[in-house]
Target: GTPase
Amino acid sequence: MEEEIRCIGCGARIQAEDKEALGFLPASALKKRLENDEDIYCQRCFRLRHYNEIVPTSLTDDDFLRLLNEIGQEDALIVNVVDIFDFNGSIIPGLHRLTGGNDVLLVANKKDVLPHSLKAGKLKAWLKGEASEHGLKPVDILVTSAKNKDDVSELMEAIEHYRHGRDVYVVGVTNVGKSTLINAIIKNVTGSQDVITTSRFPGTTLDKIEIPLDDDSQLIDTPGIIHRGQMAHYLDKKDLDLVSPKKEIKPRTFQLNPEQTLFLGGLARFDFISGEKQGMTAFFENGLSIHRTKLAGADDFYEKHAGELLQPVVEGRKLLRKEFSIKEKSDIVYSGLGWVRVSGPAVVAAWLPEGVDLVVRKALI
Ligand code: GDP
Model:
């Protein structure tokens, strides 16, 4: 059996397989450090030590539940970061029950990708409604872009306002931009080096990152949980980059007749089955190619062009079909990929790789 090597920073077992899991260190770096008889830190602790920079990590569901329970015992402010573009994929089931009655500040990140015509008031009202449907009653909702310094300052002011001298725990599923936000907070709060300390959640091997806020309270970053319904977990980095919006999405409207199909790259499909001819608007990364074809020939079209004209695809996963009867203006949401707005009434079908979430909601825009 191979000897187990542990990170001297966080105690995680060193592994070279999963970049996002605890203890990751590329095999080449491990070899070099062993040869030079250097201390073995995982990549995350190394970056933390040398650059005061945190790297995203993720946890198993059990560890995450344990962590939330732990937080539930504390008197603290919980900051829950979600991705506006993938609200359903970023909500933490049961968060309100697990945080033990602590105040939750909801931070909806990646606002830069939504069409700028969407008014802030309308967006907040929509977020409040969505949060409430998941049983979450946040003390306030902030809309941010982690890349925007002003938003980060505003977030820090809100945290200061709502924490009433308490510690602050930042929680979120992976890929919502939590690390990007925390790194911006570190720069905002300190501007200086060596301010992050790490410590363990009692009874676990999980490290938490503590950023001092004042003499006796801190902001604590927690590892993210993987929400398996997110598209992100079925794509490699290159393909994920291809489908993740990097700037404002330009809505694309198609005047569709019934029995027409749209292919969203090779990842998803939208069928207009019956209803009056109408405009269907696609909200996806601007670089994702959308192909229109006849419903009757769509299966053959996919068979023939998947992986070439229709890019990217999730290898080895079939597209599953769900049919919906739409009465009012609604979004068919392909979790983490985007959505198609249907004016209705219409009968439509949506296809997605097995395992990725699909939701219908009242139109956001
Ligand atoms: P974490 O897993 O929640 O810690 O997420 P990361 O901070 O690693 O971010 C996940 C991805 O989202 C990265 O590709 C980031 O560049 C991107 N991202 C983070 N914040 C924003 C944002 O405000 N706007 C946009 N457009 N992308 C963001």
Remarks:
- The first strand starts at residue 58 and ends at 59.
- The chain has ten helices and 19 strands.
- The two ends are 57 Å apart (CA to CA).
